[in-house]
Amino acid sequence: EEMNKKTEEMINMVLEPKQTERFGQLRLQRAGVGAFIRADIAEKLGITQEQKDKMQKIREAAQPDPAAFASFRDMSEEERREAFTKMQEKGKKANEDVLNVLTAEQKGTWAKIQGKKFEFPPQQGFGGFGGGRRPGGGGGGGQQPGRPETKKDNQ
Fold first, then answer.
1. CB 3.0–4.6 Å: which of 71, 89, 94, 150 could bond 62 by disulfide?
2. Which residues lie across from 133 on neighbouring strands?
3. In whole angstroms, what separates CA 118 from the centre of its chain?
4. pTM score, two decimals?
5. What is the pLDDT along the chain (155 residues), one digit of tens a residue?
């Protein structure tokens, strides 16, 4: 929280007010429904405690099974791609379900505070629920640096 305040102060010092506003809109677009957990956004949208609870259940159900990651390094590249695709589909469905918890009025407000739609470049690698992505992407194929070879890598 303290770090966020300092970051906001720095942004406000560097950017002009219109730029700051647009930057905030882009941050919301990138965060997607993950922004609903922010107190300021929940307040702007008028999200009720009942809605928060529903959203939390959807998020929990969308979490990947930790056991799937345990066997990940033993998977072939094709199996990994298939697992990534399934996780992405599950995340996309969860995002849609969370959005559908909002009323029509809340959806309108959400669209308005995001501003004009911006098409971000496609992301690489893992994506957390609601758009949280690690910097620099990833997801390239082949042998990963620092990762020991597995039997399937040698076949």
1. 94
2. 127
3. 16
4. 0.67
5. 788 889 889 999 999 999 999 999 999 999 999 999 999 999 999 999 999 999 999 999 988 877 767 777 788 889 888 888 888 899 899 999 999 999 999 999 999 999 999 999 987 655 444 444 444 444 444 444 444 444 444 44
